[in-house]
Fold this protein.
Amino acid sequence: MSEYILDVTDVDKNFGGLQALSDINLRVKEGTVHAIIGPNGAGKSTLLNVIVGRLAPSRGRVLLGDQVLTGKEPHEINQLGVARVFQTPEIFPELSLLQNVMVPAFAKREGIFKMNFIKSLFSEKEVLEHAEHLLEDVGLLQHKDHLAGSMSRGDKRRLELAMCLGQQPKLFLLDEPTAGMSRHDTNRTIDLLKRIKERGMTKVIIEHDMHVVFSLADRISVLAQGAIICEGTPEEVRNDPRVKEAYLGGETV
Amino acid sequence: MSNTKIVSPKKDMIFMAILSAVVLTMPLWLQPFGAAYPDLMQKFMIFGIFAIGYNILFGLTGYLSFGHAAFLGVGSYTAVWSFKLLSMNVIPALIFGTVLSGLFALAIGFVSLRRSGIYFSILTLAFAQMSYNLAYSVLTPITNGETGLQLEQADPRVLDRMSGIEADASLPTPNLFGIEGIGYSGFYICAALMLISFFIYLRIFRSPFGLKLRAIKSNQNRMGYTGFSTRPYLMTAFVISGMYAGLAGSLLAVTDPLAGAERMQWTASGEVVLITILGGVGTLIGPLLGAGIIKYFENIFSAFNDTVLLNAFSFLPDWLAHPIASVVGLFVGEGWHLTLGLVFMLIVIFLPGGIMEGISRLSRLLFKREKTEPKSDGHENKEKEQTSAGEV
């Protein structure tokens, strides 16, 4: 197994004439938190979409450890150990919080497809306990029987985090996990993410909030107009003149 | 509308016991409603099976099929052929009817499930109409076209002849080892099968498989990123509900051994959609209630004719009775579908969750009156609404 858990090599993505990603090279070490920052429209979400298999790259390839992800379906990539939270929480609004967390737990246990209607949910003690534990972890246990769709946006995000964590992914991708959250909720989420970090889960995180980025990331890549213009430790990135230029536009001209 | 509580199997067994008791005593308690005759009760059971099967697809996965009558028709034709070729015993007829419909569903599902939403509905509708036209004309050697497939004295009935059972002067009737498929015994055969089907349906609802189907309905995108391939799940649900429809179709042939192409027409597909929505999509017993209510009122309303109406309004002076009777006459008898349409519109507009939503609203009203509601904000109130709606 290579030293890097995620290895993105020479990835291009064109949408018609638009070059959304060009020549992306990104390597993430196991157990680290890697942040991707950059102005709006820089291609951050496109990059995540390429990694999880929602979009096929026009060129290049993506590896998870030794396994090739390029060309696989999203559910296959998830089964290999990649979980993702979305910019707008993707949960199951018509199910209760507990059921929301149970579904991914079944995915982890049963694989892509299993027809199982002999056992009732009630007798799935292990999954139930696991699910309650996860909800407790994100502080939602008291709402476990509520409909997920009726929760606040911050709660939905934390629910989505719990759903992904339940799968114990090798690689966890977070697309702006604190967007639209209040300061209070943001801090709670940072605490939660820090706790997860201690468990050694590799994370790639896209974020606009520099407070979040600098308090979590081990390494940062800066994306602008579809290319990585700078990569390094938070300290290096903070002091790089190219980053300031990318964010502030033509101010230095 | 979804079940948010995880129900213990013990409660489910109690529920099954109550349901069985209610169903099996139907000949008694339906007496005062004038519905306790076998023909109608058989219809309750058969359309109940059809509707709960349909609910597995529509209620759990949210895929609206407009072609389920095709499976009903396949079940009927297969059952009649089984009577003609093999035996008048209902067991082979039911097995072949169910299995063949399942295979048929596999083929239709394979193509239709490539699309979702309205395109899926249109594809299933197209397939059902194709099947109807095939049955009506092209496949006349198999389906006997317009006339419909009927039993004949001279049918081979290989198994029956082998065991020395010969049809006497009259046409033979379908039977379960001598228990006739018509009349009260026919009702009990249908009721037993309905209860077995319901039990399987209940297990599906309560299982991880059912949870995943509901998750597909709720957010198919998330399902993909959760490591599930949705196609095989949808396919399984589609085939299971096709088999339920096939079973219902074969039972129709058991209670009346005649299969016609009109059973496959789109109106028949529409009827099961209507039954399910009227009862409550995605609820456990909603579809059963819907089937019972629609079949009951169809029976009552379509029996009215002008003379009955004139009699009913005879207390009015003649000049008033006649116009009123003729206006009301539009809504009954042949025109009962007009009434059905109106009721359906009212339900969809005011009670989108069907009768089950109505029941849970009522029970909440009563509950509130008994106990003063603890102070809670609107958010929580809405929560309770959803939860209680889902419990039954």
